[in-house]
Specification:
Radius of gyration: 17 Å
Structural class: mainly beta
Order of helices and strands: HEEEEEEEEE
Helix content: 10-25%
Distance between the termini: 67 Å
Oligomer: single chain
Shape: elongated
Strand content: over 45%
Strand order of the largest sheet: 3-2-5-6-7
Number of helices: 1
């Protein structure tokens, strides 16, 4: 019985992982921070502060692949999938006419451990 409890405990503990994601949101044209942008990382929602920064540090299940969505009124939506695969990090961004996925040139950069998102203003 003790062995069963130990195995179940180890399985439950191993399912949790500390997920850390840092994001800075900037206006693509002016390079100024975008305050109060909505940043969704999987099911977690955040709002950027006065310097356009969000720091996610959550105990989650395995988020080896995570979807990041950034929205702000007056800007085009930003969508990115980050896939952690062994020793590589793969950034996937696509444009799909049936959704709000928008791809622009140089719409993001990675500086050390921080994703920098450059939002484009909507064209009226």
């Amino acid at each position: 019985m003790r062995l069963k409890i130990l195995i179940i405990s180890i399985l439950l503990i191993s399912c949790d992982a500390l997920t850390v994601q840092k994001v800075i949101v900037k206006d693509k044209l002016t390079k100024q921070p975008v305050e109060k942008a909505n940043v969704t990382i999987e099911s977690y929602e955040f709002e950027t502060d006065s310097i356009g920064f969000v720091h996610m540090q959550q105990i989650t299940g395995d988020l080896s692949e995570r979807k990041i969505i950034v929205t702000k009124a007056g800007y085009r939506h930003f969508n990115l999938i980050i896939d952690h695969n062994d020793d590589f990090i793969i950034y996937k961004q696509k444009e799909d006419a049936t959704s709000d996925w928008q791809v622009g040139e140089n719409s993001f950069a990675v500086l050390k451990d921080t994703l920098v998102v450059y939002l484009e203003k909507e064209i009226n």
